[in-house]
Amino acid sequence: MSDERDEQRIVVGATGASGLPLLVQCLRIIREADGFRSCLIMSHGARTTLAWETGLGVDEVRALADEWYEPEEIGAGPASGSYRTAGMIVVPCSMKTLAGIHSGYAETLLLRAADVTIKEQRPLVLCARESPLSPIHLRNMQELSMIPGVRICPPMLTFYGNASTIEDMTYDVAARLLMPFGIEAPRYHRWNGLGE
Ligand SMILES: Cc1cc2nc3c(=O)[nH]c(=O)nc-3n(C[C@H](O)[C@H](O)[C@H](O)COP(=O)(O)O)c2cc1C
């Protein structure tokens, strides 16, 4: 039986940008990864897009996580640097939440957890999604990317992996988002150079 002190806890934030299937896939990969557990915080915006994009209910997604909190629970564990985590991923990350993280406006538990992740110098992966990107979005991303540990990872498709379905592409993007935490998604094939 695993003990949470022996496992690496990843805080998983989800916001109201398009890309909720990526959240679901990330939670599934973390669930299958030995030695990792997830701590989910969904914004209210994410609940709206979740229904549109996946047809899943909030409870079904929460069931994929090891623990979850409401965004209003500002006194919950992820609000403190003393809470053990391996870092945080925000998937998908809206431009509103990106701006909140950029400015240190830690109004919700999700924003506070990201603020804590930065101050504790832990990995913070932001799957920022909008199109087209305005100068404000690009400035926020550029400045956040300069902070050690922060990675801006928009959900970009790759075609060289020969994924044939949207599910395969979603899996590949999710797998890459989780690499900074040392998770090897079992169905992801790393590039080993062009074959003969
Ligand atoms: C169907 C739908 C798709 C959306 N897609 C995006 C998006 O891709 N990027 C974005 O920044 N906002 C998007 N939004 C707007 C955000 O949901 C909205 O700005 C929200 O206030 C974000 O709040 P949150 O970051 O607290 O979840 C979308 C909204 C809806 C209803």
Automatic annotation (TrEMBL):
Q: State the Pfam families in the record.
A: Flavoprotein (PF02441)
Keyword annotations from UniProtKB, A to Z? Flavoprotein, FMN, Prenyltransferase, Transferase
Keyword presence, tRNA processing: no
Q: Membrane-spanning regions, if any?
A: none
The keyword Transferase appears for this protein = yes
Source organism, top-level taxon: Bacteria
| An example Gene Ontology molecular-function term | prenyltransferase activity
Q: State the InterPro entries in the record.
A: Flavin_trans-like, Flavoprotein, UbiX-like
Q: Which residues form the Flavoprotein domain?
A: 9-170
What NCBIfam families has UniProt attached to this entry? PRK06029.1 (NF004685), ubiX_pad (TIGR00421)
State the protein's name. Answer: Polyprenyl P-hydroxybenzoate and phenylacrylic acid decarboxylase
> Upper lineage ranks?
Bacteria, Bacillati, Actinomycetota, Actinomycetes, Bifidobacteriales
